[in-house]
Amino acid sequence: MPFTVATWNINSVRLRMPIVERLLKEHAPDVLCLQETKVPDELFPENAFRKAGYEHILFHGQKGYHGVATVARRPIELVEKRRFCEIEDSRHLSVRVQAGGKSVLVHNFYVPAGGEEPDPEINRKFRHKLDFVHEMNGVPASQDESSASILVGDLNIAPQEHDVWSHKQLLNVVSHTPVETENFEAMRSSGGWVDLMRLNVPAEQKLYTWWSYRAKDWEASNRGRRLDHVWSSANLVPDFAGYEILQAARGWEKPSDHVPVIARFALD
């Protein structure tokens, strides 16, 4: 059986616990990384995860906003809850898990959305986003003969032309502006991270993981963006066995506007 890692911006874990349970029952990833959990640590629904077979639970949350959590069917060890931009807003969690004889460091990120106006001089949220991505340069894809790294999460940037429904129409829309995409790709490349979702997929193929709540019929309009990502250190590429974007989850009851992405690795 492959080693599987799933990432999902759940947009309130307590509100959407029924569809989280559905994901765990139907797909049973070894590790699930959630973003935008929107719950303080003391109220995290640990019992629901344990009932679903996920005994290993770590979280970094706060009341009402942001928050990340990583749950697993096998033991995980807390490595770090890093603070970015000198702001305590619960956007990162890293854990270590054993898979295929390797010690795998798994980073779970929720990058700031950045607000509506793509101008850091007048929009402090956009300035925060750019600064956050810059600080991610301090998170390299560490690897050696016995260890590897994975980075997943809602990174809130669609870096490539076909990661959005219309490149031309979204060039001045936050998540796809040149200043975001260029800095994002430079950070990924300099850190030694491999974009696994694009590894064996033609550049012209559309890939989406998010569809706005604003669309009356999200499926018919299909105006999506690839905001959720799966990266790894180079030494995991030979073990990468593909991934699945669970687009159907956008149509589940009381859905998130993001859908899960499940990556598979030929590690036991």
TrEMBL record:
InterPro entries attached to this UniProt entry: AP_endonuc_1, AP_endonuclease_F1_BS, Endo/exonu/phosph_ase_sf, Endo/exonuclease/phosphatase, ExoIII-like
Domain annotation Endonuclease/exonuclease/phosphatase: ranges: 6-258
Organism of origin: Mesorhizobium montanum
Pfam families: Exo_endo_phos
CDD domains: ExoIII-like_AP-endo (cd09086)
Leading EC class: hydrolase
Gene name tied to this protein: xth
One Gene Ontology molecular-function label: double-stranded DNA 3'-5' DNA exonuclease activity
Keywords: Hydrolase, Magnesium, Metal-binding
EC number: 3.1.11.2
Cofactor(s) needed for function: Mg(2+)
Assigned protein family: Belongs to the DNA repair enzymes AP/ExoA family.
Name under which the protein is recorded: Exodeoxyribonuclease III
Transmembrane segments: none
Any coiled-coil regions, as ranges: none
